């Protein structure tokens, strides 16, 4: 049963009789649960890591958010990549991954490593070339990632320098 037309207060009555703001459709008035078994691997990938999609347009109808997990096996290094115009937030769940980028703000470019552990957060600005490394010979590194774009933008690169970055 559709929501009744809004009244002059800007509210609409749901089938259960609750008044809600008039432009919010039924899909966007409920929480959506994604269990670990609901994660999907058919998303953009980079060599040396596995991305699993949790919250997206595909899984829950998100319009401007992408969230998922990345797994980097023991003693593995991902390929170099960036995430386009998307800001990326990373939360380290397990392991001790290193995040590597080229610091270009000094007199000379210098490869910089940020060593992390469980509970740490990393912010990756748009277009910054980087890679993930898991130096631990026995333990997989698992991180949760959230992006400001609904799509998992991944541009794989040959190196960490900015020469391959194309701002569209």
From TrEMBL:
Domain (Cupin type-2): residue spans on this chain: 77-144
SUPFAM superfamilies: RmlC-like cupins
Family annotation (Pfam families): Cupin_2
InterPro entries: Bacilysin_H2HPP_isomerase, Cupin_2, RmlC-like_jellyroll, RmlC_Cupin_sf
Top-rank taxon: Bacteria
PANTHER family attached to this UniProt entry: H2HPP ISOMERASE
Name this polypeptide is given: Cupin type-2 domain-containing protein
Taxonomy of the source species: Bacteria, Bacillati, Actinomycetota, Actinomycetes, Streptosporangiales
